[in-house]
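Troubleshooting log. The previous structure file for this entry was overwritten by mistake, so regenerating from the original sequence record. Sequence copied from the archived sheet and checked twice against the printout by T.R.
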Amino acid sequence: MKDLAGRRLLIAIAAALMILMIPAMMAAMGVRVPGLEEAHAGGGVDIDDIVQGLNADGTVDPGATLSVSMADLENKMPGIKEHYEKGEVDIKWETGSFEKPVRTGSYEDGNFIVKPTLKDATQKYWLSTGFVNGSGFDDSGFNQNTSQIEVYSGTITINYGPSLNTTYLRTITGLLSRNYEVTTDGQTLSYTCQNSGKTYYSNDFMVTLLNADTNKVIKTVELSGSKATFKNVKVSYTKTTKFKVRLSFFYGDEEKTGGSITFTDKAEKIGKNKVFATKIFSNQAILRWTGVSGATGYYVYQGSKKVKTVKSTARKVTIKRKKAGTSKFRVIPYVKASGKAYKGGSNKVKPKANVYKRSISKSYSSDGYAKGSVRAQKISGKGKKYTATLYAYNNRIFKLVKYKKISLKVYADGKLIGKKTIKNKKVNMKENSVKKITLKFKGKVGDLKNGTVTYSISYTPLWEHGYKAW
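Regenerated output below.
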């Protein structure tokens, strides 16, 4: 029994010794040991006298960089440069707490640098040195944290700050889109760090556009001179949007706000479309419309049924459906925004007969002497069949016997839709008279009622006694 108790005592003592040796063994293997680091935390090499960028009172200027040169660190820790360059020792700025440090900063041109994030609360920064895993290097003198550097911005007081003019320039860039240009009063911002008593000046402002009701940021831009422009800002079609514009600057990474203004805006309601309709057949109609600025497209309705959707640039559509020639139509403009389509208005129109008319004088004296002119008064169509009503003029003391030839060509929207030529058309028109002539012909479908109609007529009149036109 005594032997058994003795063996147990020896085992317990060996286990305790092993536990005590583990940190040293891990250090020898190049493993970072939290307990060991904490033992050195802040109690290592003093770097207060070699840190560049820190004011005497412990504050740092906005945008300042803390820097420790490798040469100065080598003087404090001889040999560290060689081990760092061999990859045996890692050196990095850390902040936060020793229990949960945040590694930061960089090594540039022989200097370990870090740009502190300025806050009202005091922050701590230190350089951490430690073995690199697997390097085989285990000198405990290079496995420690330096002394802590305390930095703080102090309490910031805005002495006088940016303000915005109460007016703004508004440009409509679309039904639901706006450009806003805001102008500042040109002041320079100044702010003081109370702890150090230093005053800083800046005109490096950011201008932020927000939804004033939700405080949601829409856009942030840099101030250019005294102006800031927000482009293609969306406005609501159904309600007024209240905007807020504020000026701000950054003290380190901390935003400080200055003056602000608010204004409201909304999209104009989409306009009403003007529609025209021409009957071609009983089951075919041609629709035209004036169009509405800012529309995404157009919905075509036959009665209460939507039968077609066309793009925003369209101004004409042919509908081939049952009773299209006698139905009532609307072409409603719409705007799509935030996944929804907002409709405008449209007149309701029934297709009208496909007829082109012009006013002409029916007095023989309206024609030049001995011209024998032929003029068109009306051209009507039913499908592809056309009838032209012409008038011939005889402003001469002789009888106009016939026209050797009369040729008519009709165009709709720049395209030839029909032509007719007649020869040796007897008219036997007495002196100083006007006579109606009717021509019938077939052609292509064209919109005479609402399209752009042009025509040409050529003719060769012959009077009695063989007289010709002058």
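The radius of gyration is 46 Å. Archived copy saved in two places this time.
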